[in-house]
Amino acid sequence: MKNLCCALLLLLPLTALAVSYPIEVDESLNGAEVSVSPESIDRDLAGLLVYNYGARPVECSAVFKNGPEVPRTRQAVIASGERLPMTVKFRRDIIKLRVKLTCNPQ
Length: 106
Fold this sequence. Notes:
The protein has one helix at about 1-15, and strands at about 25-30, 35-40, 45-50, 60-65, 70-80, 85-90, 95-105. It is of the alpha+beta class.
């Protein structure tokens, strides 16, 4: 039993690397003061963490593209000083994710 636990602990870092895939983010901020952090969450689940550090609310729209699948769009209004995750789940494993983020100050 002890050997089995040790073997599983050794394989744990390898499984964490298996969820890594490239994410390209094309930002069109239009004067909005935001920072964007892409996240690879699972093999078919990804997200963006958008932080608004400006003085006004920001309206953002993100289009997630994963190969031949239909692009998925997420929209949100982010208040000043707030952080908001935008997540998307695909039907297939993500090989390379392309995200077009457009933000406009209100």
